[in-house]
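From the methods appendix. Each design record in this collection lists the tokenized structure first, followed by the designed amino acid sequence. Records were kept in a plain field format so they could be parsed without special tools. The example shown here is representative of the layout used throughout.

RECORD:
FOLD TOKENS (107 positions):
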């Protein structure tokens, strides 16, 4: 970081590289979410009611699904912290303020 502060030409390249890294992580999120190759696994040894081996028995691979969720969530968190303006949560405030109190002065 000291080198980037001392050398303006490197500082610009570093900033561009960091921006490219953030874009890469954003694309990774879509790739991970869209990739379902290992979401299901074949189960061996299952038998039907008559004791015959079943064929093509697939079960959800919960470990892979959860790992993919963790990978996506980690990238989303990093993006929201390192590039909050672009990827952070947006908070919108709206509506009208209505005052319902009245001041009554009595003699």
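DESIGN:
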């Amino acid at each position: 970081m000291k080198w980037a502060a001392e050398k303006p030409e490197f500082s610009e390249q570093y900033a561009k590289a960091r921006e490219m890294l953030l874009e890469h992580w954003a694309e990774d999120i879509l790739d991970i979410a869209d990739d379902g190759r290992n979401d299901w696994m074949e189960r061996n040894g299952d038998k039907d009611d008559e004791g015959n081996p079943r064929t093509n028995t697939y079960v959800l691979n919960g470990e892979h699904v959860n790992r993919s969720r963790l990978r996506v969530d980690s990238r989303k968190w990093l993006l929201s912290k390192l590039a909050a303006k672009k990827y952070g949560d947006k908070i919108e405030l709206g509506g009208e303020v209505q005052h319902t109190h009245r001041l009554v002065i009595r003699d």
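APPENDIX NOTE: Residues 35 and 95 are 41 Å apart (CA to CA).
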